[in-house]
């Protein structure tokens, strides 16, 4: 019987642990503040931003909301980020992506003070991860490491295959698995013999962005599967990059969609906000 890795339960535990740490900081006179900036009114982004605000409220982190119109210029956005960078009372700055097309996303990411980069997307944060120094780590892959550790899945020495090489999931995921002493392969859209490569995996992370792409032909007997994809099907239900029903009898453990990786992303954002206090003190 495969173990279903319950991201909702694990994320709930992490949030409760963080709530305790935030209360300790408060008792010591330290309030943690996250600034969340949304440009435009993309409905999916509004849902994510709202969920982040709710998580902040639950944990006891103060959130500052900047809801900017579609017509906001790049200069106006950069000015707001610059002001927040300079405010001692703001610990974390998050710009909800994507931003409208007339704004240069890379420039926006680079303009955030790396000490307040709670999304972990700044080149300095990515570089620190790459060379094994402390810094903010992208929330979704950081959450996946927590899912594995808290489900007693050993990473050390294991064959880990990450399918997908995006900057926010695939690449940091591979670096984190390497940091945990996994033997890591990154596969992507140009990989030859993907089924063979994927079948080597003891731990297979699917971050492809294609619904139900991974079936049992890609999966070794007893593998642990982490499904990062989120897709809304025609019947309104959510599914992942993995064909759950097809692989369930082959795997030893798997994350469901919904309720697997998804809830961990916000929990790890909250973790980064709490960690920001020490990161800001230490540098
Ligand atoms: P992306 O589109 O930036 O990257 C997809 C990657 O998949 C690319 O690197 C590409 O090389 C690879 N790929 C595409 N087609 C392939 C193929 N046929 N064979 C092998 N590799 C292929 O996507 P992303 O931002 O990394 O997100 C991936 C998925 O995860 C999406 O469904 C996204 O919605 C989801 N996601 C979920 C969370 C969460 O919190 N659960 C967070 C981020 C992304």
Automatic annotation (TrEMBL):
KW Glycosyltransferase (keyword) present: no
Domain of life where this protein originates: Bacteria
CDD domains xrefs: NAD_bind_m-THF_DH_Cyclohyd (cd01080)
Record organism: [Clostridium] fimetarium
Catalyzed reactions per annotation: (6R)-5,10-methenyltetrahydrofolate + H2O = (6R)-10-formyltetrahydrofolate + H(+); (6R)-5,10-methylene-5,6,7,8-tetrahydrofolate + NADP(+) = (6R)-5,10-methenyltetrahydrofolate + NADPH
Name of protein: Bifunctional protein FolD
Keyword terms: Amino-acid biosynthesis, Histidine biosynthesis, Hydrolase, Methionine biosynthesis, Multifunctional enzyme, NADP, One-carbon metabolism, Oxidoreductase, Purine biosynthesis
Gene behind the chain: folD
Residues that hold NADP(+) according to the record: 164-166, 230
Domain Tetrahydrofolate dehydrogenase/cyclohydrolase NAD(P)-binding: 138-280
GO molecular function: methenyltetrahydrofolate cyclohydrolase activity; methylenetetrahydrofolate dehydrogenase (NADP+) activity
Gene3D superfamilies found in the cross-reference section: Leucine Dehydrogenase, chain A, domain 1, NAD(P)-binding Rossmann-like Domain
Quaternary structure and interacting proteins, as annotated: Homodimer.
Function comment: Catalyzes the oxidation of 5,10-methylenetetrahydrofolate to 5,10-methenyltetrahydrofolate and then the hydrolysis of 5,10-methenyltetrahydrofolate to 10-formyltetrahydrofolate.
HAMAP family registered for this protein in UniProt: THF_DHG_CYH (MF_01576)
Family designation: Belongs to the tetrahydrofolate dehydrogenase/cyclohydrolase family.
GO cellular component, one term: cytosol
Record carries keyword Chloroplast: no
Biological processes annotated in GO: L-histidine biosynthetic process; methionine biosynthetic process; purine nucleotide biosynthetic process; tetrahydrofolate interconversion
EC number, UniProt record: 1.5.1.5, 3.5.4.9
């Amino acid at each position: 019987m495969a173990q279903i890795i319950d991201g909702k339960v694990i994320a709930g535990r992490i949030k409760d642990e963080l709530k305790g740490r935030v209360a300790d900081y408060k008792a010591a006179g330290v309030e943690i503040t996250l600034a969340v900036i949304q440009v435009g009114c993309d409905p999916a982004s509004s849902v994510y931003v709202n969920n982040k605000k709710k998580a902040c409220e639950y944990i006891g982190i103060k959130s500052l909301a900047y809801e900017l119109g579609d017509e906001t210029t790049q200069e106006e956005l950069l000015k707001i980020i610059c002001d927040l960078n300079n405010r001692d009372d703001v610990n974390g700055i998050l710009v909800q992506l994507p931003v409208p097309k007339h704004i240069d996303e890379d420039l926006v990411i680079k303009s955030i003070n790396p000490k307040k980069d709670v999304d972990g997307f700044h080149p300095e944060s990515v570089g620190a991860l790459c060379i094994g120094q402390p810094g903010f780590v992208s929330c979704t892959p950081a959450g996946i490491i927590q899912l594995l550790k808290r489900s007693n899945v050993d990473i050390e020495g294991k064959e880990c295959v990450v399918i997908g090489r995006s900057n926010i999931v695939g690449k940091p995921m591979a670096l984190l698995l390497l940091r945990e002493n996994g033997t890591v392969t990154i596969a992507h859209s140009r990989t030859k013999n993907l089924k063979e490569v994927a079948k080597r995996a003891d731990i297979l992370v699917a971050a492809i962005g294609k619904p139900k792409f991974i079936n049992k032909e890609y999966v070794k007997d007893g593998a642990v599967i982490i499904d990062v994809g989120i897709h809304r099907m025609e019947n309104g239900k959510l599914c992942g990059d993995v064909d759950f029903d097809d692989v369930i009898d082959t795997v030893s453990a798997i994350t469901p969609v919904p309720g697997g990786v998804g809830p961990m992303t916000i929990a790890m954002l909250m973790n980064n906000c709490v960690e920001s206090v020490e990161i800001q003190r230490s540098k």
